[in-house]
Write a structure and sequence with these properties.
alpha+beta, eight-stranded antiparallel barrel, 9 helices
Length: 336
Amino acid sequence: MDEKIFGESGVFTRFLGTELEKEVDGHTVKYKFPLPVEKTQNSLQRQILPPDMVLRDFSNLTIAFQEKILGQKGIPVMNGKFLAIFMWDSNWGTMQIDLSSITKGSRIEQKEAFVGRGFEVLDGSDIQSTVTNGQVFADGTWRMDVSFLTGQNFSYWGKAKTGWLLEGCFTCLGCAFTASQCLGRVFLMPDQLSMEQATGSLVSSALQKIALPENEEPKDEKTLKKYRKHLMKLEKTLNQMGSKTNPKGSSRSKKFNAGVSDLFFNEDFDIETFYEKLKMFINERFGAKERHFKRQWTKVMMKIMAVCEFDDKSRCPEELRKFESKDQIRLMTARL
C-alpha cells in the first residue's frame, strides 16, 4: 500500500483495544484492554511509515516539537514524561509513561537503566502499568517490560532510527525479540508538556537540587524558620510562572504563552542544566515582552540565591555564586 495513502486513508481508528473476560465475585465480566493479546493476521501493521508521518498523524504534538524530536542526535535520556504510540491491525492508540532513569542519564557500561509507570483511560476506566527492566544501549537498541494491573504483560523493544523517536514492536513477555513474534508496532518519544506540567517538573527539580537535605537544614530554630520561608517563596514563585493567572489573581494577557512548551524536560539531573532549562522556560513563557522576561528572571534568580545562601552558595548555579547582593542581580538583568 502506498505510504501516503496509508497515512491519510483513515484506516486507523482510535484505540479499539481488545475485549477480555475475567471473574469478579463469581461473575464473568467483560472489559476493554488497550492492546492485543495475540498475533495479528493483518499485514497493515507491518507497513513502514515515515517517522514524520507517525508524529503528524498519530500524535497531538505541535509541529515545532515534532521537528525537535526528529532533529535530535543520539538517544533520549529515559526520564520524565514519554509518549507511546501503538499500532496493530487497523487500530492505534497512545499511552503516557512516566520514566525514571536509574542511572541518572549516564550510560554505565554503555547502557542506561530505567523504570516507570504508564497511564491510559479506556472506556472510562483507568489502565495502569509498571515499567521494569528498562534498558537503552549505545547502539540505539532499547527494551522494557510493561506489566498492566489487569494482568497482561508485554515486552517493548526496538532501535532508535530517527532522532529521539524510538521505533520497535511489542511482544508477549518472555517471547523472542523477533519480528515474527510482534503483536504490533510501538513508537516511544519524550512527551510534550503543558505550561502547568512543565512548571511542575521545574518545581520538583528545584526542590531536589536547591533545597537542603533534611539532615543538613539549619539547626537553630530561628534560622530554620527563615530558611523554610525563603524556600516556600521560591516554590510559590516557580508555581506562579505556570499559572493562568498573575499573582493578583487576574487572567494573564494573551501575549503570554499559554499553550504547550517546546522544551524537553528529561535531562535536568544537575543544577547547571536545570538552571539553563529554567531560563529557557521563562523566556518561552514570558519572552513576548522583554520587560516581562527580565522581571520574572530577576525575581527567580533572587529567590534561588536567598535559599542558596543558607549553604554558602555551594548548591547555587555557578552564575549566582559570583553575586554578592540582590542589587548586583538587578543590574545584571537590566543589561540583558
